[in-house]
Amino acid sequence: MYIELWLAGCALVALPLLMYVMLAGDSERHEKDCIGWLFRKLVNAMDFFSGEYFNNAVEKIVGKTCCVRLSACSNYVLYEKNPIMPAIYVLFVGTGFTVFALYAFPYIPFGVEHEWGISFYHKIN
Questions:
Q1: How far apart (Å, rounded) are the C-alpha atoms in residues 88 and 96?
Q2: What is the pLDDT of residues 26-36, one digit of tens each?
Q3: pLDDT level of residue 114 (50, 70, 90 thresholds)
Q4: Would you say 40 and 48 are in contact if contact means Cβ atoms under 8 Å apart?
Q5: In Å, what is the CA distance from 22 to each residue of 7, 10, 35, 39, 61?
Q6: What are the φ and ψ backbone dihedral angles of 65, each rounded to 5 degrees?
Q7: Quick one: which of 67, 88, 101, 107 has the fewest CB in 10 Å?
Q8: Distance, C-alpha 87 to centroid of its chain
Q9: Rounded CA gap, 52 and 100, in Å?
Q10: What are the b/e assignments for 49-61, b being 16+ CB within 10 Å?
């Protein structure tokens, strides 16, 4: 129970920080601070993983045929029309609604005993 909460807390801190670093890390304001340093490290890591040295190392490990298949798969997912992104969107929206309906919806008051609940806004005349 506590491990899941700890991981969720880490994700809630790390993801906005990563987004901020990627969006604002290249600005003059963050040129000499830790945000700029993190941005430069992330850009260097992305350059390494997209560089020729990394591609040659992967090709030696998995073979040329597998690299061609991985390249074709990445081109399909990133640059061609496919149902993957709409499916991920529907999955996220459905998961969000399910979590809301299971955990938050029972705490919304219903009935005439609560003037400020949902029934207050949807009175039938």
A1: 12
A2: 888 888 899 99
A3: low
A4: no
A5: 22, 18, 9, 6, 31
A6: -60, -45
A7: 107
A8: 15
A9: 46
A10: eeeeeeeeeeeee
